[in-house]
Amino acid sequence: MTLRGKSSGPRQLKVRVRSGKKRSQSSKLWLERQLNDPYVARARREGMRSRAAYKLMEIDDRAHFLWKGACVVDLGAAPGGWSQVAAQRVGAPEQGRVVAIDILPMDPVPGVDFVSLDFLDQSAPEKLRDMISGPADVVLSDMAANATGHAKTDHLKIMALVEAAADFARGVLAPGGSFLAKVLQGGTEAELLASLKRDYKTVKHVKPGASRADSAELYLLATGFRGASS
């Protein structure tokens, strides 16, 4: 789902940010990227919490794992873009259910039950299981550790989060369920990938058009959960 500028009408001029005494070069470049990002502008127009919402929309438009009446757990939910999309697509709270968690605070999202807690806290998995009070159909994870700038270290940190999310999904998903998690280019660890292929009918990496071209992020999508006893 790549946005394209319309051929009619004036071409949008690129916004440039002046460097200031209190603004670093990296901050300047980040701000310029935000101001010129069509997905950021679209999110503002459409009332979405973040540009990440369009990543989930595109992935689900292809794989169709968010369905009316589904129960979804959103790990690392703040600021709420994925929770918004999930709630809309599963019809929460009337038809489906969305439960979300993040260590950061998140403003309420209609149809979403949120808990402010570190997912790696020992109490988090049980808390989430109590909140959904039954099996889940989808587990989403857009969790990411703070970047260090060292590619190998960042890869290991995010893979630790993915492994924790995958282990949680294995314990709560209903047969046929789906698991979607953010990873970094460099490949999913072989052991994790092998276990997912045992647990799910289909496992693949996807990179939605809403992901920035220069970003190392990929998404790991596993569908058709075989069941906890597999």
How big a fraction of the residues is strand?
15-25%
Helix content: 25-40%
Most strands sheet: 7 strands, mixed
- CA radius of gyration: 18 Å
Distance between the termini: 35 Å
| Spatial shape | globular
Q: Within the largest sheet, what's the order of strands?
A: 3-2-1-4-5-7-6
Please count the beta strands (DSSP E, at least 2 residues each). Answer: 7
> DSSP helix count?
7
Structural class: alpha/beta
Helix/strand order: HHHEHEEHEHEHEE
What's the rounded overall pLDDT mean?
Answer: 83
Low-confidence stretches: 1-13, 28-32
Give the secondary structure arrangement, pairings included.
Elements: H1 25-35, H2 38-46, H3 52-63, E1 71-75, H4 81-90, E2 97-102, E3 112-116, H5 124-132, E4 136-141, H6 151-172, E5 173-184, H7 190-199, E6 200-206, E7 217-225
Parallel strand pairs: 1-2, 1-4, 2-3, 4-5
Antiparallel strand pairs: 5-7, 6-7
Helix pairs in contact: 3-4
Protein described:
It is built from seven helices and seven strands; from the N terminus they run αααβαββαβαβαββ. Mean pLDDT is 83; it is low at 1-13 and 28-32. A seven-stranded mixed β-sheet has the order 3-2-1-4-5-7-6, with helices on both faces. Helix 3 packs parallel to helix 4. Strand 4, helix 6 (151-172) and strand 5 (173-184) form a beta-alpha-beta unit. With 230 residues, it is α/β, with parallel strands linked by helices.
